[in-house]
Amino acid sequence: MNDTHESNFDIYIHGLLKEAGINAEYQHTSVTKLNEALSTASKNQTGEKGMPDFIAVVNGYVLVIENKADRDKLCLRDNDGSISLSVKATQNYALNGALFYAKKILAHGAFTKIFAFGNAGDSKHHTLRPLFVGTDTVRELEDVETFGNFSPENIDAYYRRAVLNEKPSEEILHDELNNKAKMLNEALRNYGQLGDSEKPLVVSAILLALTEQDYGFSLDQLSGDTVENNTDGALLFRYLENSLTRAKVRPEVKREKVIDQFTLIKNRPILNTIRSELLDGKNPDGVTPLKFFAEYLNREIYNAIRNGSSPKDYLGRFYGEFVRYSGGDGQTLGVIMTPPHITELFCDLTDLKADDVIFDPCCGTGGFLVAGMHRMLQLAENDIQRKHIKEQQIFGIEVRDDMFAIATTNMILRGDGQSNLTCEDFLTKKTEDIQLHGITVGFMNPPYSQAKTKETKNLSELNFISHLLDSLLSGGRAAVIVPVSVMIGKTKDDRELKADILKHHTLEGVISLNKDTFYGVGTVPCIALFTAGEPHPSDKQVKFINFQDDGWEVKMHRGLVETERAKDRKQYLLDCWRGKIKDAPSKFMVETTVEAGDEWLHSFYYYNDEIPTEKDFADSLADYLTFEFGMIAHGRGYLFDGKKETHT
Description:
This protein is α/β, with parallel strands linked by helices. Helices cover 41% and strands 14% of the residues. Strands 9-8-7-10-11-13-12-14-17 form a 9-stranded mixed beta sheet, sandwiched between helices. Strands 1-2-3-4-5-6 form a 6-stranded mixed beta sheet, with helices on both faces. Strand 4 (114-121) and strand 5 (126-133) form a beta hairpin.
């Protein structure tokens, strides 16, 4: 590669550094200690001064970056597999040169934590490989696509996670919440004999009652009284009614529908009977299961939900854990819960604004609404705008009574009792009536696989998508998560629906997701994004992205967990989606025109645009020669010279 190619790659790397907020200097450093350390760091190893392509100091960490335009010049290893520090290696290979500089800086003693990067390729096809170089260690880390993990905001957390193998605080909280949900699930089953769909209702009822602690309710009032109107369940029920009234839940039909779901706490004798094995300091003879549950929730969960400082759908998380630990997969209840990292991704992909009006027509426990409300509140400029967001900019529909009650509870606990949730069948709603609410953003995870016969074809995921798009204002944005099979359009009805969608709306892109996104369910999902009310132009370049490698992995006994690569992968996805990266490799993103009969998936449009390297060519040639030699050795040389051997 010539100097021009190398220079272009340097410009690309500089852009990535700048995007991450890293102030890196090019072939120069104004830091005195680094100048001293590099005064004898020539890669020729002659003892003269040397300088990496880029160098920066971020929160006390040094970033040393070496770039090569030839992808074959990423790294040279010694026979034992270690990164070579020979003169040839440090001069000609990116990672080797970066490691050489890092060791020089380390030996000087002023800095003890260094990230050395070897980058090779061009703006489209490249490898960015970091090393951590410390006093007693050189650790090779996972390749990255951005420098986001090394920004001033993220580098400390990345170091603790990737180098020290510490769990980040959010993962610790996630594990703690799961453990608490597991323990509570077992208690609800053992002491309350509650079914899968009843457990979250009991939890929701108690949490609503706990909101009345500022208005006269005390856990000490739960005494296990056997008088009908004074049992623990009756008291909790009375206070949760007060909570719904205080939250100004409207209309009355909504309030009554929620209340009806919670009557089991006062009508189920086993929940209101004192058990001697449930002890606490004040009640040596035992307490009722309801009091035990209430004390546990108040101590372990209530404040985490009530403070509203997180976009997480805690009740949805609890619901999912109840299903998981009961041996179910959610499908038996007709529910597939959307993971929190996906609900937050929806907010990013649709570029949610503080003045948007969001709508989820299949809102379940309210996960999308919680994430959307949290994002809009963060973007709001004052308390008046925040109040308006809560009261006028959140709409949801849920057809199941129990899930509707949980969603309503979720929003009340977030200080949003006036959110516009209704318990109805979305597909029976007139789209023109929904449009009157001024919906600008639609989020949806519709019911899956309901269109099994001609009689139920109207329940297909594509029909839900079409109905959602018709319900938004013209120019509104929609994001839906559905099985990849939906984007294929196998049946005639599906193909007709896809054609109708393109006739009235614009397909912006489809993102293929990690096959374990719905871990334990077996559904391989994708996200489809649309602009409503604008017919799809025939020359529209639609983005199809392969985001199966999203940095989330399944860990034994823990399920799907975030790795240190997740933030980097998400940032790269968003940079491609938003057009900051305009020339992504086709293995990640393809931009193309579409037709209704196409499979709207990356795999359908993918083509290999990667030019083989010299090493690829050499490897292929070696494979061919090995094959030819093997054929000749077995008497089949005629295959190569056109002359068939004869035997006498």
